[in-house]
Structure to design on (355 residues):
């Protein structure tokens, strides 16, 4: 076996060396009249090593030239070009807490909470923040099943990029496919995420190549809060919900309030002219940002305070289970910085005062 492997490596090495050395238009020594394509990948399509325009079909013949002459402008699919979102991690303040009442089809359906906490210091990595989310069903929905949903999202404290996310979903009662699900997402830099999805006792591992502006659910909502909210401007990013890649499109519609405002808006000293309306769409896409045929796009609406606090007041969506509405019921501002805070801590945490 070792002798056979050595012979195979020797032959392949000879073939590779001959393919690189064969001049344009000359036949290979084993009788094929075509010039073999190079085994190494080109740097950029349509350019040579010096950055000048080049035609790869000029140095080929026979079937190789026919393969390179594709009827399309570029016959090879590539990752869609996206821009990195502007850094926003420094705008998130540890200590903020939100509580929402969840309504489904006009009926009380549960409670949802979110909290921003400081990340655990690690000298081997950049500073991080954690966004904790919890939700549970109540009311009429609990007659069918009690659902608890917990998520812990670790993001970069400067850029806001997702680092690690763990989502635990548990059904108690009627469960269509599974009763316990744990989804672990580890973002290996921009553009790649390793997912371990465990449903009951069945585990699946995936390595997904995604656009560079991909967030997890919690960091995506934090990103929306930090947008400039310029009227008529559309913002785009991507999010992985479980194992599903979705494109998020948000557009600011200007100042305006929903028909029914939560009662807490008075305590927050917010009027109809202090609220910004947002509209968006969630589209399920593949790794090349192309919509998946047969999958519905879901509309989302949100109303956020237009001041520097950017407090989410109302969120609506026609998601998979129907129309869902979240209304803010409680808000805890971040603690004000103390006088004895170190200069480094004061720099990393903005000193914005909250009412």
């Amino acid at each position: 076996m070792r002798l056979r492997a050595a012979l195979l490596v020797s032959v392949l090495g000879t073939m590779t060396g001959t393919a690189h050395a064969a001049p344009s238009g000359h036949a290979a020594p084993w009788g094929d009249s075509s010039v073999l394509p190079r085994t190494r990948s080109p740097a950029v399509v349509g350019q040579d090593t010096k950055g000048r325009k080049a035609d790869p079909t000029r140095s080929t013949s026979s079937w190789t030239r026919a393969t390179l002459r594709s009827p399309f402008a570029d016959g090879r699919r590539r990752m869609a070009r996206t821009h990195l979102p502007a850094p926003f991690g420094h705008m998130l303040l540890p200590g903020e807490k939100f509580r929402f009442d969840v309504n489904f089809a006009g009926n009380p359906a549960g409670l949802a909470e979110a909290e921003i906490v400081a990340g655990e210091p690690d000298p081997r990595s950049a500073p991080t923040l954690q966004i904790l989310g919890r939700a549970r069903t109540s009311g009429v929905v609990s007659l069918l099943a009690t659902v608890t949903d917990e998520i812990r999202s670790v993001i970069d404290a400067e850029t806001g990029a997702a680092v690690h996310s763990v989502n635990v979903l548990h059904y108690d009662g009627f469960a269509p496919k599974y009763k316990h699900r744990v989804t672990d997402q580890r973002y290996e830099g921009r553009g790649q995420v390793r997912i371990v999805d465990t449903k009951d006792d069945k585990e699946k591992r995936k390595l997904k190549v995604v656009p560079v502006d991909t967030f997890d659910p919690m960091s995506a909502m934090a990103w929306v809060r930090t947008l400039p909210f310029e009227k008529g401007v559309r913002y785009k990013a991507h999010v992985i919900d479980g194992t599903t890649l979705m494109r998020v499109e948000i557009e600011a519609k200007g100042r305006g309030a929903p028909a029914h405002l939560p009662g807490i808006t008075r305590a927050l000293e917010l009027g109809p002219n202090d609220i910004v309306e947002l509209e968006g769409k969630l589209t399920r896409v593949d790794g090349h940002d192309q919509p998946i045929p047969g999958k519905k796009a879901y509309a989302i609406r949100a109303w956020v305070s237009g001041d520097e606090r950017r407090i989410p007041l109302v969120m609506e969506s026609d998601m998979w289970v129907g129309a869902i509405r979240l209304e803010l019921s409680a808000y805890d501002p971040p603690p004000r910085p103390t006088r004895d805070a170190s200069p480094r801590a004061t720099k990393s945490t903005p000193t914005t005062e909250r009412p």
Summary: The first helix runs from residue 2 to 21. Residues 93-336+343-348 form one domain.
